[in-house]
């Protein structure tokens, strides 16, 4: 298996400004993901994809070299993750390295472990397009989620006769922490069009994803708890 690890880190961030290099527990957020990736993979296959020179400088403080800065068209709010991933794959192919498996690790999930990444990779077998990390969602569409009908009344998102939360089917929420992707499948269609997808289940803490300032405050609390502060 030829693997390529992609850590996407765009400079623009609205929910938490400059979050990828904001200090969490005394080190830039992106360092958390770089460190866990290095527990498993050699530097040669770890690619931080960024458009931002300051992020590049912060990343290279770890000794990991950034092979390119993203082109301008992949640095906008509307640039898709799909395009960013393919750009990284094609860059390495042009240099003579042909990965067949892409491991996507977003820097906004600092609490995933190397053990979890390895376990997710172990689930990746022939015929699977993607392994994706999930957590059991609290916002179950059979129980608590509602939609408006044509008359403006709230109706269940998914019909069920269950009267207790325990009686409804489990529903899994993508947590954004780990993706193990078949590159051949990625070249043929968008991730959202994958049909052969299996889950890797993670706990609430390791699933924590930072998108808002509230998420950041919670992350600080988790980090302090982990370190016994």
UniProtKB/TrEMBL annotation:
Coiled coil location: none
Record-linked InterPro entries: CMP-NeuNAc_synthase, Cytidylyl_trans, Nucleotide-diphossugar_trans
Signal peptide bounds: none
Pfam families per the UniProt record, alphabetical: CTP_transf_3
Keywords: Nucleotidyltransferase, Transferase
GO MF annotation: an example: N-acylneuraminate cytidylyltransferase activity
The keyword Nucleotide-binding is assigned to this record: no
CDD domains, per database record: CMP-NeuAc_Synthase (cd02513)
Keyword Hydrolase: no
PANTHER family: HAD SUPERFAMILY MEMBERS CMAS AND KDSC, N-ACYLNEURAMINATE CYTIDYLYLTRANSFERASE-RELATED
Protein name (Swiss-Prot/TrEMBL): Acylneuraminate cytidylyltransferase family protein
Phylogenetic placement of the source organism: Bacteria, Pseudomonadati, Bacteroidota, Flavobacteriia, Flavobacteriales
């Amino acid at each position: 298996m030829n693997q390529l690890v992609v850590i996407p880190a765009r400079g623009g961030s609205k929910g938490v400004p400059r979050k990828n290099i904001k200090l969490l527990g005394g080190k830039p957020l992106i360092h958390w993901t770089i460190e866990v990736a290095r527990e498993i993979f050699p530097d040669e296959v770890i690619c931080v994809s960024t458009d931002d020179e300051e992020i590049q400088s912060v990343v290279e403080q770890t000794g990991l070299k950034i092979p390119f800065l993203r082109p301008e068209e992949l640095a906008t709010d509307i640039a898709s993750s799909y395009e960013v991933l393919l750009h990284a794959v094609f860059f390495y192919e042009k240099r003579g390295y042909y990965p067949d498996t892409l491991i996507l690790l977003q820097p906004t999930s600092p609490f995933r472990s190397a053990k979890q990444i390895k376990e997710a990779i172990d689930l990746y077998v022939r015929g699977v397009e993607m392994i994706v990390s999930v957590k059991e969602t609290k916002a179950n569409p059979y129980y608590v989620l509602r939609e408006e009908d044509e008359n403006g009344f709230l109706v269940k998102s998914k019909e069920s006769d269950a009267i207790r939360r325990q009686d409804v089917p489990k529903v899994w929420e993508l947590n954004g922490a780990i993706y193990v992707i078949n590159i051949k499948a990625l070249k043929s269609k968008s991730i959202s069009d994958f049909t052969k997808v299996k889950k890797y289940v993670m706990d609430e803490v390791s699933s924590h994803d930072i998108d808002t300032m509230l998420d950041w405050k919670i992350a600080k609390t988790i980090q302090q708890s982990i370190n016994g502060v």
